[in-house]
Amino acid sequence: ILLNFENAGISEKTLLNLVLSHGLFYGGAAQFAAGMWEFATGNTFGASAFTSYGAFWISLAAFLWAHQGGLFAGAQEIDMFIYF
Mind listing the pLDDT tens digit for each residue in 54-64? Predict the structure, then answer.
């Protein structure tokens, strides 16, 4: 929901910090760690699902952080569309 508010443009600029922190730590690191725990128990489906979902959120948070921070100075809005 937080990311949808940011994408729709109906939020304040400070909401991006909340989106990034949730995406990186809750959606990313926690899901990735859960995937590693599933791998340790021998559940390959759980390991694949949680690890890939966590890696997606880590990459999305890093992409948004770099995009908003000006690292991709020549990037266009279509780049966000292509990423999704």
Answer: 998 888 888 77
For residues 34 and 60, give the distance between their C-alpha atoms in angstroms, rounded to a whole number.
18
Nearest CA to 28 out of 62, 54, 7 is that of 54
Tokens, residue 2? 């937080």
Handedness of CA 33, 36, 37, 43 (dihedral sign): positive
- State the Cα–Cα distance between residues 51 and 33, nearest whole angstrom: 7
- Among the listed residues 14, 49, 21, the one whose alpha carbon sits nearest the alpha carbon of residue 35: 49
Query: What number of other Cβ atoms are within 10 A of residue 61's Cβ?
Result: 21
Give every CB contact of residue 48 below 8 A, 6+ residues apart in sequence. 35
Task: Please state the pTM of the whole predicted model.
Answer: 0.69
Residues 7-12: what's their mean pLDDT? 71
